[in-house]
Amino acid sequence: MDHQFPPRLFPSFYNRGPPEQLPRGRSGGWGAYGGVSAQGGSGPLSSWTFTSRRRVDGEVWRQTEPLPVPLLSPRKAFQEYLTPPDPMDFLSHLQNFFIDDGLDAFRCTSEVLGENFYFKKAKKKEKYRQGSVNMWRTKSYIDLLKYKPCPVSNPSRSLERFSSHMSDVVHDVPLELLGSLLYEELTEQRERMQFSERSTGGALAYVPFSQSEGCLLYPGGLGMDRLHFHKVALQNSCMDASSSEPVSFQLKAPIRQISCGSVLGDCCVAVRSDYHCGVWRFGERKQPCLLQVVDAEAAATCVSVSPHVLGEVLVVSESGAANLWTVGRGLQKVRTEESNLYFNAKSPWRWCEFSAHPRVMVYADRTGAELTDFRAKASGAHHTLFRISSTSDCRSGERLLLCRYLGDVNAFHHLVATQHSAYVMDERFPCVPMLKCDHMMQAPPLFCHVASASDRGMGETTKVLLGSHSSQEITLLQYSGGRLEACSSRGAPQALLRPSDSLTHLPVQIPHRQQAAAQRLASPAAGLTCFQKKGGAEDFSLCVLQLTEVGDIFYQILERRPPAEDKSGAPEAQTSEQLQVSNPARHGDIITAAPETPDRIVCLDSSTEGAEDERGTRKQLPVAFNDEPGLDAEVCGGEEVDRSSCWEAPLTISSSTAETWKLWLQKLRLTGQNQNPEAVRPQNFVVQTAGLLQAADRDAGGELDEPLRREMKGCMRRRSLLLNDSASIKVPLTVPALVNAEAWTDALSDRLTAAWRGEEEWQAWWRDQLGTNRKMKADALRRKRRMQKEARRAEGRRFQLSGSFTSSVSYQTDLDDPFESTGWSSAVSQGTLSDEEGGAVLESEEDRTLPVTATPDPIRTTTPQKYTPSRPRPLPPTQPNTPQTPRANQRSWRPQDDFLSSVWGTQDAPPQSEEPPQSEEPPQSEEPPPLPSSWFPSSQSGSLRPSLGSLPSSQASQSQRGPSQASQPKRKKSRMGF
Amino acid sequence: MESLDEHFNLEDESESSDDSSRNRHKSKLPLASPLCAETKFESGFQKTGRICLEHIREAMLHHKWQEAAEYMASYTQMLEDRKRRSTSKELVWRLSIEILHHLSNSTVKDYNIIYERMKHSGVKDYLTICLEHSFHLMLHGQIEEAKQQLSVAESWRYGKESISQHQRVKLIQAYRSLLDYMIWCDKKYTLTKNNSIESDNQGMQTLFRQASVNFKELLRNPGVWDPFVLSYVEMLEFYEDYEEALNVLNDYAYDNSFPPNPNAHVYIYQFLKRHNASEKKLVKVLKNLHLLVPSHELMLEYSFLLLQSERTSDFRKAFAVLLDMLDFACWRSNLDVWKSLQDAIHQLLSQNEGQMIIQDYMALRKDWWPKLHFTRSHAKKDSEENAKLLEVKASLAEILCPGRALRYTAEPLPT
User: Fold this and answer.
1) Where do the domains of chain A lie, and which CATH numbers do they carry?
2) Which residues pair with A490 in a beta bridge?
3) Is B91 in the A-facing interface, judged by CB distances under 8 Å?
4) What is the predicted ipTM?
C-alpha cells in the first residue's frame, strides 16, 4: 500500500549547509554498505537480521543480445559533428570566412575603396587611373595565402600598413563584434554538445496497452519535427514495429520532450518543442488527435502531464514561470521565480513535476526542488523537497539535472538525478533522501525511466534507468523498499549497451562505410524508455528503447535470471567460464575477420542489386568463409559469424538480429547515397567488372549451367569441395579462343609461352634471363665476331659506313647476336630495379613504341628488344644508389667488361669521366642513340654498338661523345617518367 | 593532516589541468569528473594505473566481475604511488570489496584481509573502514566480532577531530550501543524464559548504562535515528523510566534542528497509545502529524477521534482531514476513508452551518475534484472493483459537488 511509510529508516546525520568542498568518495557507492538496520529481537541474539542501506544482492539482468537492435530502418537525417567545437578556434573560423566569403565580409568597404585600388602590375597603371593606389604587391601576397605560408617569414609591408590603417573599417561587421559573437556561439555549441539541457526528459515515450503491446511515441523526419504514434508489439525476443504504419503529425519545430500521462485508459501526451507545446489525446482504440497548442514567450524547458487529472499539463519556461495548462481553458500562472531557488547557479533551466497531491507540484531548478502548493496564492506554501546541500551529501559543483515523479512506483516518491547520483525523495519526509545511489555515469543523465516492480510482494526491485545525452550511456539501478521497509539500493549499477559500441560486434565493413555507420550510431541520445513484460511466473523481460538525435531507435531486451540462481552465485561462475571460453575465440576472430572483409562486402553489394532480397543475402553470407581454411569446422549461418566477436555479452548474436543489422546497414548506405548526390562527390575510378568472370558465350550456357551454379553455391554454403562426380561437366563449356602468343611480347608472356613449350624451354628462358649462360654466349659471340670481322675485312670499308647510318630495322636483323649479349647484361643490372619499380609499366610503354619487327622467332627477338630499351630508364635511380648496387651484379658483368674492353680498347675512359656514377655499368649501356625519339628505346644502344665495335678508335670516340651530350636531356625526360 | 593536505593539492592539480587551454572560459556545466582524471604531468606508472582503473570501472559497470578482479589484482600496485596514495587507497578498498561481493568464490577471509590491510595502511579512512567492516560482520551474523571491531574503533584516536571524523565516531558509538541493546534483548529473552538468573540482570544493567550514554549523546545531534530511538525507548520502558522515554521522543519529534521525520510523531503516538494516554494528547500528536503528512495512515484514526468528540469544530476538522486524505492518489479508492467522510458529512449536515462548511472546503476543490473522483471512468472502475465504494461515493457526489452534471452514478451504466 502506497500510504505506508517505512516504520524505521536507516540512521544518518542531518547536516545542513553547503555541500562539502572536497569531492569525497569518487568511487561512489561501490563497496560500502552505508548503514544497517536491524529487525527481529523478540528471540535470542541469533534471531536478529540486518539489512544494509546498500544491499549487495540485486536482480541479475542480462541482455539477450550482445548489442542493441535497431527498431526502424534508418531514415535521412541531418547529423551534427560529433566532436564539440573548440571556442578558441574562432580565429581559424574567421579566417575561413574571410577567404571563402570575402564578398560578404568586405563588400561595402571594398566597393568604396575599389575605385582607388589598382591590382595590376604597376607599370601600366598610369594609363588607366591616375589617383589609384598600387596594390599588386599586396595582391600577390594575398594570393599566396592560399598555400598557408608562414606569416612571419613572408611579411608584406604594404599589407601591414593597410591593415593598421584600415582594419577597423574594412570589415562589414566590425571584427571585434564578429569575433566575440563567433566565440560565444562556438562556446554555446560546445556546451550544448557536451550537455544539451533542452532535451532533458527525452523525446521517446511508450504507452502500454497490454502486456506486450503498446504505442511508441517518437519524433521523426529530417528535423525531428514529426511526431509519430506507432503501435509496436514485443514478440518472443524482438520488437515488431512493422505490423502497422505510424500515425504522424508534422510540427513546426523539433520535438524536445514527450511526456505521457494516462488516467484510467485514456492517455494524454504533451509534446514540447522550443517555443510551442501541444497536447494530444489517444487511447488503444482511439486515434490520436491534437487538442491544443500553446506558444511560449520564453523557451519552454519542461512539460509535464498530470497523472491525476486528464488534460492538466504543467509548462515551465526559461523565464521561470510555471503554468498550469488546463487543456481547453488555457494557461494559469502558478509560480514565478526569477532567480534560482537556493543559490545562484546562473541557470535559467526550470523543471516541474506533479506530486502525490494533484494541486502540489515540484518546482525544480539546478539548485534543488521545492514542493509548491498552488491552491494558495500566498508565496509561503513552498517547502524544500531537495536541495544541493550537505543534507543529501552532495558534492560541490553538483547540480540537479532531472526530477521525476515516480507515481507508478510509490505515490510519494520522486527521483532526483544529478551528475553524480540518483536520489529517491519521499515528499512526506522532504529534505532527507530516502536513498542515494551513485550511478557512475560519465556524462550527465538527462533521461530516465522507472519501471516499477510488477509484483511488490515478491521482493522485486524497482528499476531506474538513467540515460545520458552525449555518451549514450544507460545505467540500470535497482532499489527496493519505500513502504514497509526503508529504501535500499540493490546490486551494483549496471551499464547497458550503447548503439555506438555495436559495430564492434558486427562484421567489419570497408572503411568509409564503417565510418559512416559509426558516425550515425554515435549520434547523441535523445530519449529513453522502457517497458516490462511478464510472461510467466519467472519469465520477466525488460525492453529498453533508446532514441538518438538522428531519429534511430534501438532496443535491447534484458532477461532476468531466476532469483534462485541469483543467490547461489551462479552468474559469476558462468561469467568466468564464458570469459575463458571466449578469449581464445576472440583472438581467432580478429585474425580471420580481416581477410574475409572484402568478400563480405562483395556479397552485400550483390545483394543490394536484388532489392534487399533477404534470402539472397543470407545465402551469400557464407561465401565469404569458404576462403578461410581454418573455419571449415564451423557451421554456416548468421550465428557463428559473430559468436566469437561478441566476447563480452553472455549470448551470441542471433541470426535474426544479424539479419536486422545487415539490412539496417544496407539501408543506411542507401539513404547516405541519396543524401549526398554523386555529383558532389569526386568520382572514383571504376573498373568495369561486369562480365569479367563470365563465360564468353553467355546465351548458350545461360540455362545450361544454372544447375551447376546452384550446385556450386550449395557446396560453398556447406563448405565442401566441389567434386567432379557431383558437378560432372555435363555442360559443354565454351573454350576461349586460342591465344596468339606472338601478340604478347612482354617478359611475362614470353615466359609463359616458353613454359607452355616444356620445361627445357622454360629453363632455357630463365637461363637467358639470368645470364647464367653468358659465358657460353659470349664465347659464341666472340667466335661470331671474329668470323664477321674476317668477312668484313674481306668486304672492305664501304659496308661499315653504310651500316652505321641505315635504319634500325636492318640493323636488328643483322646484329641479332650482339644485341643478345648486351641484353643479358642489362637484364642483370636491371633485375633488382624492375622488381622495385614495377617493370610492367615500363614494358607496356615500350611495347607501344616497339616497331613491328618481322623476325622469325618472336621470343628470341623480343627479349633483347624488351630489355635494351628500358635500360637507360632505370639508370637515373641507380645514380645515387650506385654504392648500393649488389656486388654480385658488378662481378657478373666482369666477363662482359673484359670482353667489351677488348672491343673498346681506349674508349673506356670518356664516358666514365662524363658520368662517374655510372662507371660500373658497361659503357655501352650509356650509349645514346642518334635516332629519332620514337626509336630511341628500341634501338638506342644496339644500333651503334656493332658499328662502334668495328669503327676505328678515333671515330668511335667521336660518335660516342657527340650523341651522349645530345641525349642528356632525353634521359632526364625519361627519368621524369618515373 | 598530512593526508588531507595531500588530497587538497591533488584536487587543485586535477582541476587546473582539467581545462588548462580554456582558463578564460571556465565551464559551468554540470559534468561529472571522471573516476580518475588524466593529469597534465603523469608518469608512465600513473598512466598505467589510470588505464587499469578505467578497465576496472568498465568491467564493473558491465558486471564482469571476474575480469574486474583480474585487473584489480594489478591495480593494487597503485598503493605504492606516494602522491596519490590516499585516493587510490580508498579506490582499492571500495572496488575490491564490491568485486568480492559479486564473486562466487570469495570467502570471509578475503574480506577480512582487505578490510584489515586497508584499515592499517593509512589513517584517513580508518574509521570508515572499521564501520564498514563491522557492517559486513553484522550482515553475516557475527555480532560479537562486529562489536569487537566497533569497540576497537571507538578507542582509536588520531590527530584533530574533523567534523566528518566526529560524526563517524558518534556513529560507531551508536552502532556499538545498538549491538549492546541487542545483547541486552537476548539477555532479557533468556531472563523471561528462565526467570531466575540474577547475574544476568547485572549484565543487562551494565549494557543498558553503556548504551544509554551513547544514545543520549547521539540523540543530541540532528539526524534520523529511528532504530536507535526505538532501542533506547524500549530499554527505558523496561526500566520504567517513562518520563525520560517521553522526553527522548519529544525531543526527537519537536526539535526544530531535526529533520521533519514523520516517524518521530508516530513513535510518540505509539508510546502514548501503549501507555493509555488521553485522547486529547493523542489528538495533539496527530494534529502535528497531520500538518506534516496529511496523507498518513494515522489520519484515519485522527478523523475517527475527532468525530467521537461531538464538537462542531472537530467535525469540521475531521471533514478537512478526510478531504485532504482523499486528495492523495493512494486513498482515492479506499472504502474506509469514504465511509468516514460519509460519517463526517452526516454529522456536519446535522449541524446548522454544515452545508456552508462543506461548501467552503469544496470551493478550493470544485474545479478538479469532479475530474479526480467522479468521472464515468471512475464509476466504471469502481463498479468493477468495489461496488460498495461506488455506492458510498455516488451518495456523496451530489453533496460535495452540487450543481455539476456528474456522470458518476450508482446505476449501471449504459454501455
Assistant:
1) 49-81+453-562+656-662 (no CATH), 195-319 (2.130.10.10), 744-774 (no CATH)
2) A55, A478
3) yes
4) 0.90
